[in-house]
């Protein structure tokens, strides 16, 4: 009897060893998956921190206020020049305003094709030069009379509202719409009457 019990003990020990060997690969897989999840979580945290940093840099009130103050300071030393000839160069504009003060920069606005729009901005080093430049309003450059104004600072988020010009034919041709009350007659003076359906006489 004692010998049988010893055999049972030995068999149970062998089963435990085989179970440990079978569970070892599962533990390794779990460790690998846990490591992958930790790496993904670290990558997500890094991306989130980067996005928050970029958003904070854009929406930082102090940075926006400083940038706006810098623009206002530059605009206080600048003038708007309208009706500039398309063939005029920045050097010629600078020479035209050099008697007012030290010209720091001349910017001729262009469209997306690189063609000038017909106006420019002149930035001086001294704020007092703006008053001298305003005296050159209606002066002539390249045969054109310039329009010189003090440059205004654009406020972020504010747009100039320009109402659309009303059209007397608005809505004409749509369902349920009606033509204008009258048309001008192309064959004489006066107003042509409204269009009417012709009357039909006789039996239908």
TrEMBL record:
Region named Disordered: 1-28
Domain RRM intervals: 77-153
Superkingdom classification of source: Eukaryota
Molecular function in Gene Ontology: poly(A) binding
Keywords, alphabetical: RNA-binding
SUPFAM superfamilies documented for this protein: RNA-binding domain, RBD
Keyword Methyltransferase listed: no
UniProt key word RNA-binding: yes
Coiled-coil region list: none
Entry-linked PANTHER family: EUKARYOTIC TRANSLATION INITIATION FACTOR 4B/4H, OS02G0757900 PROTEIN
Protein name per the record: RRM domain-containing protein
Naturally occurring in which organism (per UniProt): Opuntia streptacantha (Prickly pear cactus)
């Amino acid at each position: 009897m004692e010998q049988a019990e010893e055999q049972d003990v030995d068999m149970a020990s062998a089963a435990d060893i085989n179970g440990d060997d079978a569970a070892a690969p599962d533990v390794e897989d779990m460790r690998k998956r846990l490591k992958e999840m930790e790496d993904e979580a670290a990558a997500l945290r890094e991306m989130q921190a980067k996005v928050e940093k970029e958003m904070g840099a854009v929406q930082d009130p102090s940075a926006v206020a400083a940038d706006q103050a810098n623009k206002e300071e530059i605009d206080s030393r600048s003038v708007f020049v309208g009706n500039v000839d398309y063939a005029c160069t920045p050097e010629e504009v600078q020479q035209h305003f050099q008697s007012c003060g030290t010209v720091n920069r001349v910017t001729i606005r262009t469209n997306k094709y690189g063609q000038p729009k017909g106006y420019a901005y002149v930035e001086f080093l001294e704020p007092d030069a703006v008053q001298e430049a305003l005296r050159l309003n209606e002066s002539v450059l390249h045969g054109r009379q310039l329009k010189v104004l003090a440059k205004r600072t654009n406020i972020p988020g504010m747009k100039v509202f320009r109402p659309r010009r009303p059209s007397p034919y608005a809505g004409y041709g749509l369902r349920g719409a009606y033509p204008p009350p009258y048309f001008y007659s192309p064959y004489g003076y006066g107003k042509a009457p409204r269009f009417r359906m012709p009357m039909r006489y006789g039996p239908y």
